[in-house]
Amino acid sequence: MAAPDPAELARAAAFRSELRRFLSRSEVQAAEMGLTPQRYDLLLQLKAAPEGHSTVTELARRLHLRQTAVTELVKRAEEAGLVRRRRAEHDRRVYFLELTAEGDRRVVHVFDALRRDRDALVHAFAQLDAHFHAAARD
Questions:
Q1: In-domain check, residue 106
Q2: If the chain, 138 residues long, is cut into consecutive pieces of 10 residues, what is the mean pLDDT of each piece?
């Protein structure tokens, strides 16, 4: 196996550092709004859901968590007044999950506070992607 290219290692390390910085800033911003990182992720997924709601099964897939973990996360968010359940009309066994006004307010606040951090992360992705495409052409 050939030794890794030092420049590539440096870019990968810089990218990982930027990713960790973003995650750290996300945790700080979420905490300022009284949210755990997991709760922020839950609210963000609900805010981004195409129809404005989701199910536990869909959230488990998008959050890469077990369904039981998502059920508990939803239960706690519901108790905190951030999420509500609504029974689906097409199938009474299904519950849709949606943000309350308070849940929406908090997730939007954190999302807005992280705008520059997301831009920096996108830039780091773009640099790494450009390097890998250049290396693939060589």
A1: yes
A2: 84 86 95 96 96 94 97 97 91 89 98 92 81 68
Give the CATH number, domain containing residue 39. Answer: 1.10.10.10
User: Which pTM does this prediction carry?
Assistant: 0.84
Helix 67-79, helix 37-48: angle, nearest 10: 90
Does residue 1 sit within a domain? Answer: no
Count of domains forming the chain: 1
pLDDT value of position 62 = 96
Cα separation, 1 vs 16, in Å, equals 23
> Does the residue 19 lie in any domain?
yes
CA neighbours closer than 13 Å in the CB half-sphere of residue 18: 19
Report the C-alpha gap between 79 and 73 in whole angstroms.
10
pLDDT confidence of residue 44? 97
Given this model, what pLDDT does residue 86 score?
Answer: 92
**Does some domain include residue 99?**
yes
In angstroms, the Cα distances linking 79 to 1, 50, 72, 99 are 54, 24, 11, 12
